[in-house]
Amino acid sequence: MPKMKTHRGAAKRLRVTASGKVKRFRAYKSHLLASKTPKQKRRLRHPALVDSTDRRRVARLLPYEA
Q1: C or N: which end of the chain has fewer Cβ atoms within 10 Å?
Q2: pLDDT digits (tens, 9 = 90+) for 6-42
């Protein structure tokens, strides 16, 4: 069986933690920020974890990381 290819777009956006969880960046932080409150923007700074329901989908995109 040939090697599986890593989805390069996913590899640039997602990181696997030491415990095996998948970390992602939050959306809505690139433009149109004047209308968002400072609290909203502050919360968007911190990364989030990919939901457990999407973990199998991410594992297919990142076969050697997840």
Answers
A1: N
A2: 999 999 999 999 999 999 999 999 999 999 999 999 9
Amino acid identity, position 7:
H
- What's the pTM? 0.81
3-class DSSP state of 6: coil
Q: Strand pairing of 14-16 and 48-49?
A: unpaired
> Could you give the domains of the chain?
8-61 (4.10.410.60)
Q: Take residue 6 and report the two structure tokens written for it.
A: 């890593």
Which residues are CB-neighbours of 61 under 8 A, at least 6 positions away?
6, 7, 10, 11, 14
Rounded Cα distance between 25 and 47, Å, is: 5
